[in-house]
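Lesson 9: reading folded outputs for more than one chain in a single document. The general rule is that every protein is listed as its sequence immediately followed by its structure tokens, and records are never interleaved. Here is the first one.
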Amino acid sequence: MHCFFSNIAYHLENGQWGDRFPYLMEHLYNGLLEKQYVKNAIKELHTVKKEFVHIPSQKVIWDIEDLSQQPPWGNDISEDITDLSNYFVTSEGEDLFDVLFEVLDVAKDDNENVELKQM
């Protein structure tokens, strides 16, 4: 997950963590997105996905705090991955954006907080 958020900060916030996307970067990333901010986070996530379409997969960074680090698989990725909007997947192979949108939509409908836990 740190890689995903690192790419948001690096590519879309000029390295200023949370500058444009405070609900994703300061609340969700830190483990708790309060229910009153879920709608804002959904809007931010739509913007991130839309803007990631314009960033080729070769521009992915692994860690904003150490730009010399590379993904363990390097550039050996599926041909289906064309840009950062479809680069990130869960360990089960699901598109990370789809999973996040689903979780946020359920939280919005149920008026619940979202907790992000590191595994």
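And here is the second record, again sequence then tokens.
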Amino acid sequence: MELTSMQKDILLEIGNIGVGNSINSLSKIMNELVDLRLPDLKIIEKDEFVNNYGISSIIINSKIIGDLSGNLSFIFSKEEALKFIEIMTMVPIGSIKEINSMGQSALIELTNIICGSYLSAMSDFSQLELLPKPPEIMKFTDNSRISEFIGDNKGIELNTEFKIFNESLSSKMVLMINEKYMNMIIEIANEKLIEYSFKK
């Protein structure tokens, strides 16, 4: 399944509106202006997700309930996760070597704010009720467990770029829904594109 450039543009626009709405909350937490954007997205299949995000990745997941069911995951490499924790807990970069309970709480709070804002924007765009359940850190012992977690879902993978305290950080946000719901989102994007073309 591929997206056209115009479908990508409209889904990126909605995504950037969503994460943009989270900037004030993130800036207050970090006591520093946060720059956050989604520069690109693509559709990914189960195998690509498993290959890209193995058991070494930090995956924090919110289940989606409402008119559409699925998962919204925020994914970090361990190195990037440690940087986020150091910035959020205001300790020097490079001083934290492992993720403790305080670090987990910081990552969950970050995920809760951004994913909640993203789903709110997607809900406004699609006119579907999309509600996030509280995020939790997923612990997988092997790739087969990740495959079970994904099931038959497809993913919209969004590159996520931050700039905080002159530090550049990145992560991935992946909306995982089944093919029926994916087609529904794409069809809504097509309808919006038709609306925009008539307004021009």
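What the second record shows: The longest helix spans residues 101-126.
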